[in-house]
Amino acid sequence: MANAHEAIDMWCETVIEDDQDITPTKSISLHQQDPEFAGWVWAVVDVPVEKYLGPAEKINITVPQIVLARIDEYAKRHRQSRSGFLVDAARAAMAAQP
User: How many domains is the chain partitioned into structurally?
Assistant: First the structure.
């Protein structure tokens, strides 16, 4: 655990050098459900990756009310923020259509 921050920083640098995206975090419970990780010891390490992604920017977008309600409902069910969901959806769309 002593080198976790350094390892994560090195991983982020490598991913960016390879012109790939830093993957969004997943909840620890999702990882714990994966049979590949059965019996592992778990810890949470808070590493600010903003230095690699850049600071967050506030934007103003126009979304139909019913779509916004569905976005908020979906995000809430998945314990995400509206912004987090929209960023994840944008990443998925861009990955699917390079």
Answer: 2
pTM over 0.85: no
Same domain, 1 and 49: yes
Is the domain of 62 the same as that of 28? no
| C-alpha R_g of the chain | 16
Instruction: Output the pLDDT for position 24.
Output: 66
Which domain does 37 fall in, by range?
1-54
Pair (69, 24) in one structural domain: no
b/e for 25-63, b at 16 or more Cβ within 10 A? eeeeeeeeeeeeeeeeeeeeeebeeeeeeeeeeeeeeee
What are the per-10-residue average pLDDT scores of the chain (98 residues)? 87 87 76 89 81 85 97 92 90 82
Tell me which DSSP letter residue 36 carries.
G
